């Protein structure tokens, strides 16, 4: 049997390889790292997480992301199984020890007899064979040019910013305190998954002034600042209004200062644990394009971080993605070159979980093809089905932008149209319908 070839061993490519091998089909996984790296990646491991360590909400009743988690687990996904084994306390979210996570994914794929990992860069799109392109937002220049040549159009681009990471032992815990918002979580560890740094109004106003005045990274000629709204740099949010951050990542609600319980903070900066040892914390929602020197000065204005030591400072880079509604069919194949499937963030989904989910689908579809079958996508009432429907035709091509999974992509329930019922009724109905329909999709294979 001819193998399926996958280009890129990120979350999407790794998940695709796992699904193909589990179907009994050989797979060759091509990865250019570490021989050729990117500015964001630090290792040659599979499924390296570069922006944060969070898979976001794990609530599969009230949250569309949590429902996507459920579907990936139901489908025997490698990414979710590995995340579950390396999870860290994070309130209602699923956060992982990123180094241990990627090492475990790599080990699992290396131990799978039907998976062959081949180092080296792929610079051209093959004319035949069964291929999945899962190179992500940091697709190499040579392959990006080959994709542009094959599609006859430029890929779109936006800028994705990386949040900084702080050494935990340099956080002043006489000022900061541990608490998840609204004490969310079943265990004490979950209820204390975040470190909170409070600001009064004067401190907040001074912080905003410094943020607006700080030196920022300049864009290269020909680049445009088309940010994805779910991942805006904090200085861009501040430019939209001085109160924007206080109603976004710095909102003070659901928190009580353990040191001054009677004093209400005007704003709060949250940090989330980034590794199993609890030695590293990332500043939640603090993606930035400030220059490194400015970052240390501005972030040390945050109460509790005056003497902070940074394991990593924030950064910004260009992310490329296809105008998928015009280019891909519902089997995730390039319409002009149906031997090529695309998966992951390069298709225009946003987020670790969404990228891995598209890898799962592409892998199952490619394996079915290798076995002489055709596999349709899940019903669009499911999280995966809603997402793949959006990128392969549900979205408006002229305004296509990266998208997280959300209930707005799900078809409404007839009995709940017109907003007659609130989220407490609608969201569980959406997720129960999704579970039923996704289970039926799996059973039919």
Automatic annotation (TrEMBL):
It catalyses: uridine(54) in tRNA + (6R)-5,10-methylene-5,6,7,8-tetrahydrofolate + NADH + H(+) = 5-methyluridine(54) in tRNA + (6S)-5,6,7,8-tetrahydrofolate + NAD(+); uridine(54) in tRNA + (6R)-5,10-methylene-5,6,7,8-tetrahydrofolate + NADPH + H(+) = 5-methyluridine(54) in tRNA + (6S)-5,6,7,8-tetrahydrofolate + NADP(+). FAD binds at residues 8-13. The keyword Acetylation does not apply. SUPFAM superfamilies: FAD/NAD(P)-binding domain. It is found in: Cytoplasm. Residues 4-373 form the MnmG N-terminal domain. Pfam families: GIDA (PF01134). Keywords: Cytoplasm, FAD, Flavoprotein, Methyltransferase, NAD, NADP, Transferase, tRNA processing. NAD-binding protein involved in the addition of a carboxymethylaminomethyl (cmnm) group at the wobble position (U34) of certain tRNAs, forming tRNA-cmnm(5)s(2)U34. Catalyzes the folate-dependent formation of 5-methyl-uridine at position 54 (M-5-U54) in all tRNAs. NCBIfam families: gid_trmFO, PRK05335.1. Belongs to the MnmG family. TrmFO subfamily. This is Methylenetetrahydrofolate--tRNA-(uracil-5-)-methyltransferase TrmFO. It comes from Paracoccus fontiphilus. The gene is trmFO.
């Amino acid at each position: 049997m001819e193998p399926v070839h996958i280009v890129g061993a990120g979350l999407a490519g790794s998940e695709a390889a796992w699904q193909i091998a589990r179907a009994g089909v050989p797979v060759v996984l091509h990865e250019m790292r570490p021989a050729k790296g990117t500015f964001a990646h630090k290792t040659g491991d599979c499924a390296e997480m570069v922006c944060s360590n969070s898979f976001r909400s794990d609530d599969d009743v009230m949250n569309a992301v949590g429902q996507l988690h459920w579907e990936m687990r139901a489908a025997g996904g490698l990414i979710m199984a590995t995340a579950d084994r390396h999870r860290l306390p994070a309130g209602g979210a699923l956060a992982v020890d990123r180094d241990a996570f990627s090492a475990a994914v790599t080990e699992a794929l290396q131990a799978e007899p039907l998976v062959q990992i081949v180092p080296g860069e792929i610079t051209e799109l093959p004319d035949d064979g069964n291929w999945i392109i899962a190179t992500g937002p940091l697709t190499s220049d040579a392959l990006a040019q080959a994709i542009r040549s094959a599609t006859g159009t430029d890929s779109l681009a936006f800028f994705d910013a990386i949040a900084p990471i702080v050494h935990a032992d340099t956080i002043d815990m006489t000022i900061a305190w541990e608490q998840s918002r609204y004490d969310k979580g079943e265990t004490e560890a979950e209820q204390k998954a975040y470190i909170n740094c409070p600001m009064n109004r004067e401190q907040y106003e001074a912080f905003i002034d410094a943020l607006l005045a700080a030196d920022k990274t300049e864009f290269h000629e020909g680049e445009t600042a088309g940010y994805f709204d779910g991942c805006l740099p904090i200085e861009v949010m501040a430019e939209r209004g001085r109160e924007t951050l206080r109603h976004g990542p710095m909102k003070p609600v659901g928190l009580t200062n353990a040191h001054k319980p009677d004093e209400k903070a005007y704003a709060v900066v949250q940090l989330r644990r980034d590794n199993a040892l609890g030695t590293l914390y990332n500043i939640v929602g603090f993606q930035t394009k400030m220059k490194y020197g400015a970052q240390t000065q501005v972030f040390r204005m945050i109460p509790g971080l005056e003497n902070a030591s940074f394991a990593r400072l924030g950064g910004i880079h260009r992310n490329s993605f296809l105008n998928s509604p015009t280019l891909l069919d519902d089997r995730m194949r390039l319409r002009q070159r149906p031997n090529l499937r695309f998966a992951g963030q390069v298709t225009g989904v946003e987020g670790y979980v969404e990228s891995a989910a598209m890898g799962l689908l592409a892998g199952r579809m490619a394996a079915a093809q290798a076995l002489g079958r055709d596999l349709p996508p899940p019903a669009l009432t499911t999280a995966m089905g809603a997402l793949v429907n959006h990128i392969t035709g549900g979205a408006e091509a002229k305004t296509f932008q990266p998208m997280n999974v959300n209930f707005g992509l799900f078809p409404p329930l007839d009995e709940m149209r017109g907003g007659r019922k609130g989220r407490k009724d609608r969201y569980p109905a959406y997720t129960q319908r999704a579970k039923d329909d996704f289970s039926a999709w799996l059973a039919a294979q």
